Amino acid sequence: MAMTDARKSDLLLLVSTLLAAISWMFSKEAVQLMPPLMFMAVRFLMAGSILALLAHRHLRRMSAEQLIQSVRVGLVFGIAMSCWVTGLFLGTHLGEGAFLTSLGVVIVPIIARVLFKEAQPASTWIAIPVAVSGLALLSLENGFRPELGQLFFISAAFIFALFFTLNTRAANNRMVTNRAGETRQKDRVPALPLTAVTLLTVALVTTLLSALLEPWTPTLSGLSMALAWWVTASAVIGTAGRFLVQTYAQSLSVHSHGVVILIVEPVWVALFAAGWFDESMTATQLGGCALIFAALLINRWTVVSRAIRSWVKHSRIGAN
Question: Global pTM?
C-alpha cells in the first residue's frame, strides 16, 4: 500500500529531528577544536551556499521586500545561534542544553502575543509555569547558580522564539495594515530561498562576531582532517540536509502537526549524548527535563490530541 503524504511527512520530520540531534554531536566535537563563533560562520556559509545554489532561480525572482524579510529573519537567527553555540562551548551537558533550548517552543506564543497581539489558547499559560519549574530543577544542582552555558542556552531559547515567529510570518501570506489604515496582502517568501538567505545572513553575523571576539590565527594554522570532517558534516548533514528535509516534509503536511514531531529533538540529543560523550544526569535533572518536555506537550495539547485521535482512527481503519 502506498504511503500517504501525511505519513511521509511524519517520517521525514522524524528524520529531520535525528539530523538535528546528530548535528549537536558534530558541533560539540568541532567547538573543541576551533572557536565556536568561527565554527558557526563556516558551517552556515557552507550550508547557505549549498541551498543558494539549489534556489538560484527563486533568489533572482525575490522582491526587495521579500529579501528584507529574509535578512531580518537571518539577523535574529544569527544572534540566537551565536548564543546557542556559546552555550554549547561552555556547557557540560548536551542533553540538558537541548531541553533548555527547546523552551523556545513554549516561548513562541508569548512573543506572538506580546509583539503581534495574537490570541493564545489557555494551554499556553498552563505550560509556562510547568516549564519554569523544570528549569528550576535543572539549576538545583548548582544551588540556584546556573552554569554560564545554561544562561546562554536560555538566552538562545528566547531569541529562537522570536526567530520562529518572524520566520513563520515571512513564510506565509498575511494581511498587513499601513499607517494610513490601508490593508493589503503581504506575499510569503518561498521556503527554499528564505532558508538560503537566512543561513547566509547567519554566516555574516557570526563572521563579524568571530572577527571581533575570537582569535583566528591559532585555528587557521592548526587545521586538521578531523576538524574539516566535523565542520563539513555539521554544515552538510546537520544544517543544509536537515533544513531541506524539514522544508520538504512541511510541504506535505500542516505546520502545526509538525511541531509535535519536532519536540522529539531534545530526547534524541540526550540519548546520543549519553552514548557519544558518556553523559549522565541526576534524578533531579532528569525530573527537570521531564517537566520541560511535559510543558512542550501541554503547550501543543490541541495538536497532540488531534494527532492521537487521527492515529487511532487510521489504526482502526487499517485493522479493518
Answer: 0.77
